[in-house]
Amino acid sequence: MRSRARLLRRNVRMVGVSVEGCGGPTKGSCVQPTVIIPTFWTRRRTRGPERARFHYDHPTPIDEDGTLPGCLRSLETVEGLGRVVLIVAVTEESIAHQAEDRVGEILEEFPGIDSLICGPAEMGSLHRRMEQLEFADMISGVSLAGYGGVRNVGLMLGSILGSQTVVFLDDDQVIVDPTFLGQATAGLAQQDDQGRAVLAKSGYYADEQGSFLAKGPTPWTDTFWRQTEFYNKGMTAALKPPRIKPSNLAFGGCLALHRDMYCNVSFDPWAVRGEDIDYVINARMHGGDVFLDSEWAVLHQPPSTASEAALFRQDVLRFVYTHRKLEFSKSQVDLRQVTPGSLMPYPGHLVDTSINWRSRVTALLRALGTKERGAYLTIARTTVPQAAHYARENCEKYFAFQRRWPLLMDRIWEDIALKSLFTGERRVDRGALTGRFPVIRAD
Description:
Elements lengths: L1 H13 L19 E9 L17 E2 L6 H8 L8 E7 L5 H12 L7 E4 L1 H13 L14 H14 L4 E5 L3 E2 L5 H6 L4 E2 L5 E2 L1 E7 L20 H12 L5 E3 L7 E5 H4 L12 H11 L5 E10 L7 H22 L25 H15 L3 H40 L3 H7 L21
Parallel strand pairs: 1-2, 1-3, 1-5, 3-4, 9-12
Antiparallel strand pairs: 5-11, 6-12, 7-8, 9-11, 10-12
């Protein structure tokens, strides 16, 4: 395993030679970037309180349109738009097919977009193919459950379709620049002025006033948390010249990955939130970097947040997990070490050894100073120790998963059976979800 990981790290460093267009030292044809849009759905509001199995920030009720139509409408104006892949994830499995049908109805309003949908039926086919190729142990990390698993599905689809570049866009983003894809690929697969390979690049989110800063001062209840303050300091520094430079910040709804990165480094399926910034850590551990482009941005129009306590709970799980992951990585001699100090000011302050007491104290202060008193007391009493337990139980799983990722991606690159399925050359038989692919091998 150590020799395999060292080879992976060397490959990430070496492949990014200066190139023009989308040629270069990789296999695969020169094609337009594949745009990947994860879209998250939940039950109808009239069904009463939800006991979600999977937690997402603001999923759309299946009886509403949500933000997806606005996102697709803005894509119609983008120059050089190729295939668009929509990955449909839900908060509970019972509505999975309804959500997929809802997305299909919305897509019918945009016949000019070359799109395909990945839902439960397609995932069944993908998982069966993974079993056939002897990667059944990785199925849990490539699924419609959780942010990291969903994004890994997008990476696998990119490999199946032979995409030189994948560009992630969230369904609550609006593109205001017709040259969006040109900006996405500017400098990608080339070297910066210090000879570093630019294989992963993020833009940033702006509001309708063009501001990239999170709003509002730090309230007294967040004296020991200060997430907004740390984030704004990090963003202000990241957007200073030069235009493209390594960053601690990344934005999953404005993210471009070259195949020499995404086929070598996966998302962490056990990171419950902030999988985009977690990807910065993953890439850095394996010898690469995620760069931020100060001239590439999208308009961010997220729905209002129903519960600040629910978001805080997910952040506690997220930051405690990341701290444990950084600590565990020290035992992996074949990885480049990433420390909280190297991630300052954000997320560094929230992933160091202070994260446990910061979480508990902030939960108690918010219980005193906000309306969601009961929820914050529960976080202080229950969630903080649960987060520590979750981190201990799961942080090492990513490293085992990641070591197999490059081999999996190599095996499914333009896989004949899966590519014909996802490109529409043959259709998914929803009534035969237990069927199996015949053995097909490319020469």
